[in-house]
Amino acid sequence: MKNYTITVNGNVYEVTVEEGGSTGAPAAAPKAALKAAPKAAPKAAAPAGAQGSVTVTAPMPGKILAVKASNGQAVKKGDVIMVLEAMKMENDIVAPQDGTIASINAAVGDSVEPGATLATMN
């Protein structure tokens, strides 16, 4: 058995690795308890009728860097609605079709999970 100290995202873990041809479950286990990431505050409910029929969702987890469209704005397919930073890269979130923005459901600085509704369109 070998002992290692590993640092992941600023958290330090003591890990024991079993030597040999073991086919069982890994012997590594963190000694420190993992802290859950802070959750974004829930968004206020949109007024009745403000939700559109087309949903624009987050393709991956990340942070909203910019919101380029606003409620009521007409957009064409491929127009940038917002910019999502994921893994140090900026990803344009674009309109999937021509239409009008019915609601923007994320703000600059929000952390989003995959599948989160970022905007709706009509």
Task: Give an overview of the whole structure.
This protein is mainly beta. The chain is built from no helices and ten strands. It has a four-stranded antiparallel sheet, with no helix packed on it. Strands 7-6-4-9 form a four-stranded antiparallel sheet, with no helix packed on it. The protein is elongated, with a radius of gyration of 21 Å.
Show unreliable segments.
33-49
Strand line-up of the largest beta sheet: 3-10-8-5
What would the average pLDDT be, to the nearest integer? 79
Q: Determine the N-to-C terminus distance.
A: 61 Å
What is the strand tally? 10
- Estimate the global geometry from the Cα principal axes: elongated
Global Rg: 21 Å
Number of helices: 0
The main β sheet shows up as: 4 strands, antiparallel
- Can you write the helix and strand succession as a string? EEEEEEEEEE
Proportion of β residues? Answer: 35-45%
Helical proportion? under 10%
Helix/sheet category: mainly beta
Tell me which oligomeric state these chains represent: single chain
